[in-house]
Amino acid sequence: MTATGDGATAVLALVEAELTDANDRPAVVGWLQRLCRAAARELPANGVAITLMSAEREPLTAAASSANSVLVEELQFTLGEGPCLEAHRTRMPVLVPDLAVIERTWPGYAEAVYDLGVRAVFAFPMQSGAASFGVLDVYRDSAGHLSRQELTSALTFAEVAMTALVDAQQRPGQVEMVLEDAVDSRFEVYQAQGMLMVQLGVDLGVALVRLRAYAYADERSLGAVARDIVDGTLTLQEGDE
Q: Are the beta carbons of 41 and 207 closer than 8 angstroms?
């Protein structure tokens, strides 16, 4: 890890001290999972998630501090709106200390995550020069601004996460492992979309809308619902959403 400075050194120490969970994935992905858990405690926050984003591929939630954080994070991509998308587009931090105030900006997202207990969200792009790797999102269950110290800490966690991804690119198989998950998940969504098109007698666009609507209503990720449809454990009927 090549991140430097006292702040980065402190963050690296926190991540290294973080206990490994049985569900942690190998290599850089597992390291990023531990970073998210360390960040959630240090800031403090109820959830932290890292999403990889680029112009060439669909967003992928690579790591999160908890299963609920994955759900909150992926709602942005299901609904097509939210701070993560805004931070990636503008390449600037998006700080939302009170979701109720900006409800009109992201009406679908704000309502959905509010129901899941989120009251404030802060998104920090992970970038180096012209290269953008994705976004680190911080969620809280109470409204309020980050303190100056917390803001600096969150920015440092994002910097360290970005540095880990840069370093991983130098080691064969590290980043490919993350992207392979994204390809597999996206392929399952495409499969489920095609199956729904046939089952419901609708076009592909409507099938994707129905898939997203069901995921949202059931408070599950799009990939998880798609996987159940492909496996045959879930069959959507007309009116299911």
A: no
**Residue 131: how many other CB atoms lie within 10 Å:** 12
How far is it, in rounded angstroms, from Cα 82 to Cα 123? Answer: 9
10 Å CB burial of residue 175 (0-12, 13-18, 19+) is buried
Q: Which of 2, 5, 1, 12 is nearest to 157 (CA)?
A: 12
Mean pLDDT of 182-202: 72
Structural domains of the chain, with CATH: 6-171 (3.30.450.40), 176-231 (1.10.10.10)
- In this prediction the pTM is 0.75
| 42, 47, 48, 50: CA torsion to nearest 10 | 170
Inter-axis angle of helices 67-79 and 222-231, to 10 degrees?
90
233 vs 195: CA distance, rounded Å: 13
pLDDT digits (tens, 9 = 90+) for 225-240: 888 888 888 888 765 5
The answer to whether the beta carbons of residues 175 and 182 sit under 8 Å apart is no
Indicate the Cα dihedral angle 135, 136, 141, 143, nearest 10°: -70
The share of the chain scoring above pLDDT 70, in percent, equals: 84
